[in-house]
Amino acid sequence: MSVWDDLQGQDPIVEQLRRGAAEARPNHAWLFTGPPGSGRSNAARAFAAALVCEQQDPALRGCGECKACRTVLAGSHADVTSVTTEKVTISIDEARELVRKAQDKPSTGRWRVLIVEDADRMQERSTNVLLKAIEEPPPRTIWLLCAPSPGDVLVTIRSRCRPVGLRLPPVEDVAELLIRRDNIDPDVALEAARAAQSHIGVAKRLATDEGARQRRQSIVRLPLALRNVSGAMKAAADLVALAEAEAASSFEQRDAAEKEALLASLGAPATGTLPPSLRSQVKRLEEDQVRRAKRSKNDYFDRALTDLLSFYRDVLMIQLGGGGPLVNEGLRRELDEFAAYGSPEQTLMRMEEINTVRRRLVTTNVAPLLAIEAMAVSLL
Fold this sequence. Notes:
Strand content: 5-15%
Distance between the termini: 51 Å
Helix content: 55-70%
Largest sheet: 5 strands, parallel
Order of helices and strands: HEHHEHEHEHEHHHHHHHHH
């Protein structure tokens, strides 16, 4: 099994990365871009493994069998640092720590590799901290940045990186991967891949989690229940409540464990008031946890709205007589009936309303309930 096996449907990219890993002096900075679900982070990790692979033959690097490949994929290789964030942005302190690590010589392999999985979540001042390190890196340091599109990264960074553009793999390729890698039933794998619109991570969750499939079905069927303003308001409230409940369940236990571990490391008393010298550190942790919870909610809202968009995408396909496969094939009868009572222009307007809310939730501090209520009413 090689490190490239999970890059399903990305043969040209795999070939590009194989050649890069085989070079005596690979480019010092790479920018992996592609829509959510295209596997840009997986591609960056696979490339990092190939760069430090122990195979002497350049053509065999990325074997997936040597200790270096296995530890990179497991996230424990001493010379490969991967940075992602569960907060809204990567902080300037995290950027400075990356710059410091970039100066270290590799301890075991040929290269020190730094992977920034959420380069689009860096504010301008944090990105500027990285700029000089990427412009003039140490001779054995390689940067791998990941973002949805080149435009999500400052041009001063983008111009210094070798581009790697990924695309969403075909539905059939995603289903094949789930069958081969995760032993998913073929029919379930194909349905999950189609519902996830080729997003490999979402497809796996839908294929293995009955609750996730039911939640998605409830979201996709939401337009069928929109008959009046009160119904729209209730549907919006249900969607927001579900997102907040998912976020809370995901982080409640983890937040408590993190706080307990911090207090233990600081030697804080188990009960009573914290000494003033410790309060700032506990407060900083709590602020990080709040930011992480906000990102979790935003990510869930975005996924839910993407699923909602798939309903109207199918309606538009039917109205235009496209004849292509539907994302929600199981709702074919309901979709046909819905499409008969509207026009393609109305459907496109509804899709734009949903996309507008997606952008507002990411770029502004709008209250999710208010934004989604307004959207639900506009879909009537």
